[in-house]
Amino acid sequence: MKNLFLKLKNKTQKGALAARQALLNQHGEGYIDTAIKILIAVVLGALLLAGLYALFGETVLPTLTQRIMEMFNYGG
Description:
By secondary structure, the protein is mainly alpha-helical. The chain has one domain (2-71). Helix content is 84%, strand content 0%. The chain contains two helices and no strands. The chain has helices spanning 2-24, 31-71. The protein is elongated and about 90 Å long. The mean pLDDT is 85. Keywords: Membrane, Transmembrane, Transmembrane helix. It comes from Natranaerovirga hydrolytica.
C-alpha cells in the first residue's frame, strides 16, 4: 500500500512540474508566422473558390439549365 502511495505521489509531482514548466514557458509563435499562415489560407481558399466557380459556371450550370428545361417541357 505504501508503494502505491509513493507511485501516486511521484506521478502527481511530475504532473505538477510539467504544468509549471508549461506555464512558465516564454517561447511562443510569432506574429509573422501567424500572419503568413492566415495569408496562405486566404490565398488557397480564393483559388479553391475560383476553381469551383469556373467549374460550375462553364460545366455544370449550362447542362443543369438544359435538363430543367427538358424536364418541364410538357409539350415537346
